[in-house]
Recover the amino acids of this structure.
């Protein structure tokens, strides 16, 4: 690679500091990215190719730096960068740690996080783009290449934020998106990137992460002999059909060729399938009203993570499906070993306008999200956890990790206070007042 910057070159920053170039990490269509030293801390430095170093790009970067990152998941531009010895400009941003892996590694099974950590990642994605759109911004290019995951805990990082722009002001933007992720109206050239097209791209990425397959690639894709631009325009823009469309079965996955889609689709509860069906039926043709909002994804994915349970035979993660229980009276057999899955104790937590059912597995934790109606989607620290009795391994309880004393009532009417650090044994019918919400144990 013919590098734009040299080792140990001094780069001036707009905040009157300097950084020192250490090594080239790679390049793309816009420029090259380097590791640099900033006062003893490692940062990433992106330097634009001369034809990309436009006044418009510089102005856009300056505006993004002033707006600050929507949350800590974005590797956001921190300062513009200049060098008297090199034409053009660049910017610095936080350096992505090496243990974060590309979503492409997830899709190709080079990394295989647990369902719990995978759902943590999808929740963080939905929440992050909710925060970005709330600032009046549009990402324009949500795809594999821009999101990274820590497979050990599900934390994510979002890169390439220099292309973020103000929503509805992207008509002249050169960024249109990545093939397979672009909304139909972008493929057809009838609209410019916007928060609405971001929602479609987000839905595609979430489907890929959970199903390891594209939502529009079924029989119609398998029948294509030459996958050229006209074929792609037809499949993703002119005549898109969801592979699990509840009415149109013309584009179902082809057995032996597109097996991932069917295998994973069958694993998930109905409520998440319904949301994907909305995203890729009405959401295909009605950008304004048919697409699933980030807040809807966030709530559904949090519910999905709460529904995880373990097969007692093989330990595989499965899902508690209330709709399946209503219609069939039992859960599906374990997807991994085909044995009957026993349902663990669970807690029904009643908020004013919301009820949550959380499986009480051996490693379950409850967060402010569950127990504080004013801190919805706060998973920053646990306020309760399932724990095993120290002398009787067959007895399990719920430990109070908060600073609030719980009030517990049993079915026989007896009351008990559970102070911080204490536990209550899990038993059917137990009612717990957590201070602001109530929970009832079901076995």
């Amino acid at each position: 690679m013919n590098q734009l910057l040299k080792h140990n070159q001094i780069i001036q920053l707009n905040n009157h500091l300097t950084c020192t170039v250490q090594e080239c990490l790679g390049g793309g269509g816009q420029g090259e990215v380097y590791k640099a030293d900033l006062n003893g801390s490692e940062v990433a430095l992106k330097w634009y190719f001369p034809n990309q170093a436009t006044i418009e790009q510089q102005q856009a970067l300056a505006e993004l730096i002033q707006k600050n990152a929507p949350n800590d998941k974005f590797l956001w531009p921190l300062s513009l960068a200049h060098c008297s010895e090199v034409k053009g400009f660049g910017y610095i941003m936080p350096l992505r740690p090496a243990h974060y892996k590309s979503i492409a590694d997830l899709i190709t099974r080079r990394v295989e996080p647990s369902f719990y950590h995978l759902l943590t990642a999808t929740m963080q994605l939905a929440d992050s783009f909710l925060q970005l759109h709330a600032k009046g911004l549009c990402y324009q290019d949500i795809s594999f290449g821009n999101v990274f995951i820590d497979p050990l805990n599900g934390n994510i990082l979002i890169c390439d934020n220099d292309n973020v722009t103000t929503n509805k002001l992207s008509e002249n933007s050169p960024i249109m998106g990545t093939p397979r992720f672009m909304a139909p109206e972008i493929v057809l050239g009838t609209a410019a990137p916007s928060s609405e097209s971001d929602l479609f791209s987000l839905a595609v990425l979430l489907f890929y992460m959970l199903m390891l397959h594209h939502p529009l690639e079924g029989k119609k894709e398998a029948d294509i002999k030459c996958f050229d631009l006209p074929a792609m325009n037809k499949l993703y823009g002119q005549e898109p059909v969801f592979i699990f469309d509840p009415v149109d079965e013309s584009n179902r996955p082809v057995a032996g060729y597109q097996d991932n889609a069917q295998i994973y689709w069958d694993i998930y509860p109905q409520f998440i399938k319904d949301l994907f069906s909305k995203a890729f039926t009405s959401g295909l043709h009605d950008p304004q009203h048919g697409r699933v909002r980030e807040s809807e994804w966030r709530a559904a994915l949090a519910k999905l993570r709460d529904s995880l349970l373990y097969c007692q035979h093989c330990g595989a993660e499965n899902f508690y499906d209330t709709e399946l229980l209503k219609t069939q009276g039992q859960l599906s057999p374990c997807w991994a070993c085909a044995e009957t899955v026993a349902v663990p104790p669970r807690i029904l937590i009643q908020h004013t306008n919301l009820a949550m059912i959380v499986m009480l597995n051996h490693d379950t934790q409850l967060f402010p999200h569950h127990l504080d109606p004013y801190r919805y989607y706060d998973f920053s620290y646990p306020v309760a956890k399932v724990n095993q009795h120290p002398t009787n391994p067959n007895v399990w309880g719920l430990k109070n990790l908060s600073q609030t004393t719980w009030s517990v009532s049993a079915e026989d009417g007896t009351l008990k206070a559970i102070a911080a650090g204490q536990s209550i044994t899990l038993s059917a019918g137990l009612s717990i007042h957590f201070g602001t919400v109530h929970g009832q144990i079901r076995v």
Notes: Residues 216 and 242 are 5 Å apart (CA to CA).
